[in-house]
Amino acid sequence: MLTRWGRDLDRAHPLPEHPRPQLVREGWSSLNGPWQHAFTADDEPPVQYDGPITVPFSPETRLSGSGRQLQPDERLWYRREVEVAPPEHGGRVLLHFGAVDQRCTVWVDGTRVGGHVGGYLPFTLDVTEALAEGDRHELVVRVRDVSETGWHARGKQRLDRGEIWYTAQSGIWQTVWLEVVPAAYVADLALVPDLDHDLLLVTVEPGGAGPADAPATATVVVRAGDAEVARADVPVGTPAPLPLPGARRWSPEDPFLHDVEVTYGDDRVTSYAGMRSVGVGTDADGHRRLLLNGAPYPHVGLLDQGYWPESLLTPPSDAAIVSELELVRSLGFTVLRKHAKVEPLRWYHHCDRLGLLVWQDVVNGGERYHPRAVHRAETERRLPDRLRRVYGRSSRRGRREFLGEVDETVRLLRSAPSVVVWTPFNEGWGQFDANRVARRMARLDPTRLVLQASGWVDQGGGDLRGYHSYLRHFTMPRRRRGRAGRRPVVLSEYGGYALLVPGHSWGSHEFGYRGFGSAEELTEALVELHDAMSAEAAAGLAATVYTQLTDVEDEVNGLLTWDREVLKVPAERLREITASLRAAMTGPAS
User: Fold this and answer.
1) Average pLDDT rounded to a whole number, residues 165-175
2) If you ran DSSP here, which 8-state letter would residue 411 be given?
3) Rounded to an integer, what distance in angstroms lies between the CA atom of residue 192 and that of residue 182?
4) 222-228 — which CB contacts under 8 Å span 24+ positions?
5) What is the pLDDT of residue 377?
6) Looking at the predicted structure, is the pLDDT value of residue 381 above 60?
7) Are strands 100-101 and 92-97 parallel, antiparallel or unpaired?
8) What whole-number distance in Å separates Cα of residue 178 and Cα of residue 412?
9) pTM of the predicted protein model
């Protein structure tokens, strides 16, 4: 199955847009497009390659041109030549990978330059010293992906795919790109709003060996449209406050972004920032609500798996991302819960500029957890997560790797104004020490909320109390005592109503939590369900996340078909539903 964007793919130059919109500089080049690839049985390089593959699409996808599944005991190899002139005046050459699933090692001109573990997060290698003479260089990448047979992060991927589990993918699945930078350069940039004090906290992280007299400060300029609203020389490596009195606030109704320019020695980068605050408060009726910029704001959302029929985790084009997000906004939804996946950074950029709130999952890992964790959790919400074997977290190394990925995920998305909630655990998938992990995320990022565990196994921590409800109508629970009871109640998964649309479905199997035979029956059921949800929202339910945005493989419970061609419910009826939910959730803060 192909979407309209997959049919229009330029295989020579796929996904050509700058992959990191909040840290842009001149002098970059995309390495997306044709590479050579091969599968081998061990770590030894292939004698010859099997043929071309289109990067950044995994070999399991149609758009890659390969169509082969990498097995846990195999290795996947990539090779291509790149053209880059030797940098002048001590400059550096940086090789960036958006994401490689799961483990990889990289060589340049025969020299090993590094590698990475973890399939969902970006990494950068300084390859300057490995470059041989001349302008043309060989780049080789070796990948291994053990999928669910190990404890690395894997999200919804599984080799024995089916129902709620999707085709396992591997290898390079986000943009690969090169940058030539000065000897001292901006390695990272954090832009965090502090509305209580009318400040933008700016952290310029320096990179490169640099000369001994590398600058100790960077010049930061903030603009609102054509008007300069702040300029300051800030120390590098530490948060620096920039006063922005009366700055225009960011919200879904007015997703205004301030332009930011940073000059550090000979390096110049551009970025943007959104000025907004997130919190928890009480409305005039005594209900605990989610706040945006100090006022109750309705979180009416959809679960978003982020899978595509021709390209799995990789969006087929930037236009495909925009089309989907614009549809979500037009239907009146205010939230997407990004489920068990970290998207390419351009996805968050479009949420920032279009005005969508994002609840971000940390991608789950661990061994397969015991079935009794499911059965007991449905009746015993406080099933302790110290039972590590039950939750598939017996590996100390795996737990340590997950904590590192918690930190990396927060650092990666800390400047995105659209991201407002972190969710470290979902339904006990690889859960452990949830209260401690929630506190860890809050220390790393006190500007956002933490939904400690989405569904089933709440341990009492975090800022929100999350529920899942598929097989019965949800009703507000009794309020618990102490801090745990002061958390707003959120329904972070529900619904899952299924309708197969002939000609727009993927296979012969159908999965959903309640099936319907026609669009009319589905529409009537959704209206009835959300009449009940609106009543619960008026009684204090602070957020809803319906399952789900699109069909995915066996799952036919999306509002959209998997090819993104058919909206199963009339748009005007969905707008009525979301308007009712938003009205029920909104009230003045006390």
Assistant:
1) 97
2) H
3) 26
4) 222/258, 222/259, 222/260, 222/273, 223/258, 223/259, 223/260, 223/261, 224/248, 224/256, 224/258, 224/259
5) 58
6) no
7) unpaired
8) 19
9) 0.97
Pairing relationship of beta strands 157-158 and 295-296 according to DSSP bridges: unpaired
pLDDT one-digit tens code per residue, 550-565? 999 999 999 999 999 9
Cross-strand partners of 107: 112, 140
Residues in contact with 13: Cβ distance below 8 Å, sequence separation at least 6, in sequence order:
30, 32, 33
- What CATH number matches the domain at 4-181, 3.40.50.12780, 2.60.120.260, 1.10.760.10, 3.30.479.30? 2.60.120.260
Task: Report the chain's mean pLDDT, rounded to a whole number.
Answer: 94
Question: Taking a C-beta distance cutoff of 8 angstroms, is the pair 351, 325 a contact?
Answer: yes
pLDDT tens for 267-305 read: 999 999 999 999 999 999 999 999 999 999 999 999 999
Closest Cα partner for 145 from 136, 132, 154, 133? 154
Asked if 472 and 518 count as a contact pair (C-beta separation under 8 A), the reply is no
Rg (CA), the chain: 24
- β-sheet bridge partners, residue 54: 34
Mean pLDDT of 172-192: 97
Inter-axis angle of helices 434-444 and 396-413, nearest 10: 30
Q: How far apart are CA 40 and CA 353, in angstroms?
A: 43
Q: Which fold has domain 185-265?
A: Immunoglobulin-like (2.60.40)
What is the helix (H) or strand (E) element at residue 528, kind and residue range?
helix 519-538
